[in-house]
Amino acid sequence: MTRISRSRRSPPVPVTTVVTAVGAVLLGALAFIGSASSAAAEAAAGDAAGAGDLDLDAMDIGDPAGPDAMGLGGDGEDDEGDAPPPSGGEASKDPDATAAVDPPSGPDATVYTAPSAAGAFFLETFQGGWESTWVKSGVSKFSGPWAVGGGSSPGIPGDKALIVTRRARHYGISAPASTGDLEGKDFVLQYEVKLEDGLTCGGAYLKLPAAPFKDLSVFDSDTPYSIMFGPDKCGATDKVHFIFQSKHPKTGKMTEHHLKSPPPIAASDKKTHLYTLAVLANGSFSVSVDGEVKRTGELVDEFEPPVQPVEQIDDADDKKPDDWVDEAKIEDKTAVKPDDWDETAPAQIPDTSATMPDGWLVDEPAKIADPAATKPDGWDDEEDGEWEPATIDNPKCKDIGCGVWTAPMVANPAYKGPWTAPMIDNPEYRGVWTPRKILNPDYYEAGAVRMLPIDSVGVEIWSMDQGILFDNVLLGNDVAGASAFADATWKVKKASEDEVAAAAAKKAKEEAKATEAVKDPAPGLAAKVLAMLTTAEHALEPLEKMVQGTGLEPVLDKLVDAGVQTPMLVCAAAPLAVVLLLLTCMGGRRKRPAPVVSAPPAVPVVPVAPVVSEDGAEPAVESLDGKATKEGESVAAVGVRKRRVAKAE
C-alpha cells in the first residue's frame, strides 16, 4: 500500500449547530436582561421610595383612650402586683413592659446635689430621702408602681426623678406641704416633666389638696384640693390645666373653676419641660411653659364658672302657664284670595325678545362620534354586540351652538304663586316666657379671689403612657426665686438635652446619607442602567420572535424565570454560551493525515498493434506532461499514470 500525503479544507459547520448556538446565546441574553432589568427596576423603585420612608416604629400611636384622662372616671382596678421595674434601656410599647428607671449602662454613681431655692416652703428633687416624705395612696385603684431614678438619659449626671413605670394604670402619691393662709401673699408652683415615651392619653399634672388633709394614704380623685395644675392630653384634649376650687363660706360646698382657653402642653419630644404657675396677691395669675408666659389674666374674670356667685337665679319651681301665648304673629282670618289671583302661572317663561344668534348650526348635532376611537382588538360583535365609538362634544358647536335653538327663560311678571293669608299682630301675644327670678341662696360677696390653704402636694393621674418623669417640685411665695432655681436646674438640663438631640440628628443624617450612597453609588445610576437594559431588550425582540418560531418558547420562558430568580447563575452562563458559539463558528482549517491508498489491481496488458503512418513510421503517443508514452504502454496504464501525476501536482 502506498500512502499519499495531501491537505483538505474542514467540512462546513452544520446549520443546526449554528442555530442551536445562536439560540443558546439569545436565550441567555434575554434571561440576563430580564434579571438585570428586574434588579435595576427594584433599585430604582427603592431609590424613589427611600425619600419618603416613614419610621413607623418612631411614631407613638398609643392605645385607645380609656377612662377620663384626668383620673376622675373609671375604677382602674388592677390585681397585678407592683413588682419593682428593672433598669435598662427604653421600654417597649408592650402594656406589661416597664419604663426605663436608669440608663442602659446602669445606675449613675455620680452624686448630684441640687441647688437651694429662695422662698420655697416645699422643694423635692428626689435626690435622697424621698421615701420618708412621699406616701403612696392606699386606695385600691391606685395600683401604678412608682420608682425613682435617672430615666433612660438624664440631662444632669446623677440627677433623679419620680417615674411612672407602667402604662394603663392609676397613680396616686402625695407628700405634706403646708402653705398656711395665702391671703395677701404671692404663690408659685413649679415643676419639671419629661415624657420619655411621649404622651398619647393621660395626665402629668399636680394636685394640691386643701387644708386640712393629714392622712395621705387616702389621697384619691375625691380629695378636695386647692389647685390642680399641669399638662393633660387625650384625643381632642391638649391643654395645661389650671383649676382651683373655692369653698362656699355658708354651705361649705366646693366649686371647681376652670381657666378659659388654657394653653397647649409643651411638645412631647422626650425632653424635660418646665411648668410654672404664679398666683399674685393682687388677684392676677400667669401660666408659663419653659419659662415663657403663655396665659395671663385676672382670677375674677378668666374662669368658668366665675368665683363671684350671681345675686339672683331662675326659680326652678316656676312653670310656664298653659294659656301663655308666645306667638307674635297670626294669619288674618278675614282675608280672602282675590278673584284675579292665578296660581297656575309658571314662575318662568321663554324670553320673547330673544332671537337665535347668527351662525347657529341648527343641523349640526351637539355630540359626534369620536374620530380617534378605534374598535378594540378583542371585540366580538356576536358576544359583545355592535361596537359604537364614544361620543365627544362637536367642535363646530364650541363658539356658537348647535341643534334646535330655544329661547332662554326669564321670570314671569304675572307669577304670583299659591295664595296665603297675610300675617297680622296677635292681639293675645304676651311675649317670651321666662321663669321668675329669686334670690340666690348661695350668694355671697366673694371679695378678692384667693387660693385655699394647701396641706400637701400630690400626683393623682391615670395614663396610657409610661416613662413620665416628675422632678424639682417647688412650692413657694418668691416668683423670682423659683425662676433662679429653674436657671440652675432646668436650663442646665435643656442645654444638655439640646446638645444630645443635635448630635443624634447629625448622626442620623450622616447614616442616612451613607445608606443612600450604598443603595446608589452614583445618583440615578439604577435608573440609567434600567434604561440601557430596556433598550437592549427592545433590540433583541426580533431574535426572540425567531426563537419562538422554532418552538423554543417554553425553554425561553424557563430561562427568563431562572434569570429573575437566580440572576447570578444566568450572568455566569451567558458569557459561556457566547464563548461556545465563537469556538463553534470559528474553528478554521486544520491538517488531517493523508489517507492510505492501495495500488490499483493489475490490468492485463493487451497488445496493441502499432499504428503505421502513410510514410511507414510509427507515431509517438504524447502524455499529459508533454512527454511521449512508453512504447507498448497500454491504455489503462496510461490512465493510471495520468491520475497519479495529477494527484502529485
List the helices and strands and how they pair.
Elements lengths: L1 E2 L11 H36 L69 E5 L10 E2 L9 E4 L11 E4 L4 E8 L10 E9 L5 E3 L2 E4 L15 E10 L2 E11 L6 E6 L12 E8 L4 E6 L2 E7 L4 E2 L7 E3 L14 E3 L16 E3 L16 E3 L11 H4 L6 E3 L15 E3 L11 E3 L11 E3 L16 E8 L4 E9 L2 H10 L1 H30 L5 H15 L1 H9 L3 H13 L1 H19 L10 E2 L37 H14 L1
Antiparallel strand pairs: 1-27, 2-26, 3-6, 4-5, 5-26, 6-25, 7-13, 7-26, 8-10, 9-10, 10-11, 11-12, 12-16, 13-14, 14-15, 17-24, 18-23, 19-22, 20-21
Helix pairs in contact: 1-5, 1-7, 1-8, 7-8
Number of helices: 9
Content of β-strand: 15-25%
Give the integer mean of the pLDDT values: 79
* Main sheet attributes: strand count, strand direction, barrel closure: 8 strands, antiparallel
Task: Estimate the helix proportion, in percent.
Answer: 10-25%
CATH class of the domain at 120-311 and 449-502: Mainly Beta
Question: Any low-confidence stretches, pLDDT <50, length ≥5?
Answer: 1-13, 15-20, 44-92, 620-628
Rg from Cα: 52 Å
Which architecture name of the domain at 120-311 and 449-502 does CATH use?
A: Sandwich
The multimeric state of the shown protein is: single chain
Structural class: alpha+beta
Q: Tell me how many strands there are.
A: 27
Shape: flat
